[in-house]
Amino acid sequence: MESGVVAVNNNINNYESKATSTITIKGILSLLMESIDDENCDGGGSKKRVISLGMGDPTLTTLFHTPKVVEEAVADALQSRKFHGYAPTAGLLQARIAIAEYLSRDLPYQLSRDDVFITCGCTQAIDVSVAMLARPGANILLPRPGFPIYELCAAFRGVEVRHYDLLPEKGWEVDLDAVEALADQNTVALAIINPGNPCGNVYSYHHLEKIAETAKRVGTIVISDEVYGHLAFGSKPFVPMGVFGSTVPVLTLGSLSKRWIVPGWRLGWFVTNDPSGTFREPKVVERIKKYFDLLGGPATFLQAAVPQIIANTEEIFFEKTIDNLRHTADICCKEIEDIPCIFCPYKPEGSMAMMVKLNLSLLEDISDDIDFCFKLAKEESVIILPGTAVGLKDWLRITFAADPSALGEGMRRIKSFYQS
Fold first, then answer.
1. Using one digit for the tens of pLDDT, what is the confidence trace for 317-341?
2. Calpha distance 226→232 (Å, rounded)
3. Where is the Aminotransferase class I/classII large domain (predicted)?
């Protein structure tokens, strides 16, 4: 009995060690902010303002605004006094129906309310998806570079992570040969992020179709993180992975956060795209429902506002957001051309961030991407994310959802840092 307890404790310690050693974006950005020299001044002797191009929060800019109709929807729901109590654990019925109808617009089949579960943002949806699939010996295939919350969730659930590469020379497409080589009978899911964070890529219909066929061939499902859904401004339109739900079961994760410019509201969804009915097996449905009994969803009045938010937001708001992102991405790429030590292999076509390669041979006294970012923060008060935080050493992630003036000034300071 004692040896069994020791084995359990060792397993817990192993998982916690992996979890606590996992880098988080917020964690490293906080450390970068702390490293900024309070006495850092510009040439005129005044303190340089901090320019953060590290956090994907569009509310921190003056360029992106939440639509008034969205705020009114929340106010109406709150002032009705009908939504002060608990919501059903899977989410308010009217919110689930509205999200099912919203997502179904882009699908060749109709989702039902029973396919939709409301979560506290997309982060909780990620945790739910990993928790639902966890079992002894399970592994999950994750993109590199990617979003480190997946690794953190997997570590806490005891799920092995296997990374497949995204290919910058092919517009950050999935290395499908690597997926086939990595997958085995214990692979529980292949995760993709589209539009891409941190790469700014948007997958074509054809590539998504090949991903679906590959997942089917290796006998696993697809987790499709679409938190940046519809934020596509290049040559390729956004195509939801659920389009291929008849080929392979898909778990779609999303939220209001980015498209409606409300990341702090923490209203997301976990959706089963599965017209063939794999997820509708009684045991699977029961497991999902029981797990949601453990969770607390977003505030009830926020859920109640969802139908009005979806119905009343005008298309012109979405178009303006897309135009702004296209404009700021263009500024970012143009400025990068004048900074020899960083190179952009692929102009972003979606989301709010991009990856650039760091050329260390052109830099003195810089050992790697983390060293670069900390010294840049200290000397120039500019925050960007080291690529190591998203799985790609000696790369950088730059968030371009920023005011054009701040973006331009930030790029000029990076150039100055390179020249100094």
1. 999 999 999 999 999 999 999 999 9
2. 11
3. 49-412
Phi, psi of 399 (to 5 degrees): -90, 125
pLDDT at 1: 39
Which residues are 307's β-sheet partners? Answer: none
Q: Which is it for the CA torsion 56, 72, 310, 124, positive or negative? A: positive
Tell me the residue range of the domain where 134 lies. Answer: 68-312
291 and 173 within one domain: yes
Report yes or no: 83 and 77 within 8 Å, Cβ to Cβ: yes
Give the start-end residues of each E strand in 1-159.
Answer: 51-52, 116-120, 139-144
204, 148: one domain: yes
Using alpha carbons only, give the angle 167, 27, 52 rounded to the nearest 5 degrees: 75
Domain containing residue 56: CATH number: 3.90.1150.10
Among 295, 312, 329, the domain boundary falls at 312
**Residues 219, 358 share a domain:** no
Three-state DSSP at 307 gives helix
**Spatial CB neighbours of 30, under 8 Å, sequence gap ≥ 6:** none
Claim to verify: residue 291 and residue 331 sit in the same structural domain: no
Count of domains for the chain: 2
Same-domain check for residues 129 and 206: yes
pLDDT at 322: 98
* Distance, CA of 15 to CA of 330 (rounded, Å): 42
pLDDT tens, residue by residue, 212-256: 999 999 999 999 999 999 999 999 999 999 999 999 999 999 999
- Predicted model pTM: 0.93
Classified as helix, coil or strand, 107 is coil
Q: Residues 357, 394: contact at Cβ < 8 Å?
A: yes
Q: Give the residue from 312, 340, 374 where a domain finishes.
A: 312
Tokens 């009915």 belong to 277
- Residues 44, 102, single domain; the answer is no
